[in-house]
Amino acid sequence: MNIIRTKTPSETQKNNLLHLQEACRKHDHISLTFPLEEDCTFYLLYDEDNLLSALCAFFNENGEYETCAYTLPSNRQNGYFTMLLDELLKETADNDLVFPVDETCEDTVHTLNALGADFWYQEHLMELSASGFIETGLAKSNPLWDSPALSMAYNPNEEHSPWTFLMDGSPIGSCYLDFRGETAYFYGFVIAENLRNQGLGSACLFLLLKTCFSLSGHKRLKKLFLQVSGENVPAIALYKKAGFQITESLSYYLY
């Protein structure tokens, strides 16, 4: 057995990681992937040329190491994950490790419970298609949606675009869109605290969606994605009302 630590996997190692990832995803029926786009440290456990297990971690903005690991299904319960975790722990000092987990993967949940990791919170991935939004017909139930005093300032030509909601020309809220071809990731939605519970959140969300699905040219969207904490019940209810559907739920464990 040989453990390789690297921040810059070779092309062969990347291919090995993808093969390992797909073998586990197929076996466990999950969609999680290695965060190859992040500045990760990888720990690769090889038996000669065969990658049996891999763990990667990156230091996030909250001061935690977000961690992802896979072991070939036929090589589980051999202590390989523990070997790689021990290598990571030599470098993390007192920082917490965060494990995103699909609860349907029993092997992963069992391993984290045996490790003594604590359940932290759940997060949902939601999506909305242009047709799904049109079919909701929500525009009839909130008079603020047609208010001429409500408007937005944005630049859809920016890949990471900030959008500002205005009432009579004054900012009342904001959000961000990360454009990815015909889809976009929606995040950072907030209404000024002193203006909440007045229907403005619904009105601003509707205005945003109506605008997104009617953009011209290559910026016209077919689908919008967002992530929301399972603890944020009002936000989930709002997004469902707008037509968003939960497509995946992840649990986060802290170690």
Automatic annotation (TrEMBL):
GO terms for molecular function: acyltransferase activity, transferring groups other than amino-acyl groups. Signal peptide: none annotated. Pfam families: Acetyltransf_1. InterPro entries: Acyl_CoA_acyltransferase, GNAT_dom. Residues 107-255 form the N-acetyltransferase domain. SUPFAM superfamilies: Acyl-CoA N-acyltransferases (Nat). It comes from the Bacteria. This is GCN5-related N-acetyltransferase. It comes from Lacrimispora saccharolytica (strain ATCC 35040 / DSM 2544 / NRCC 2533 / WM1).
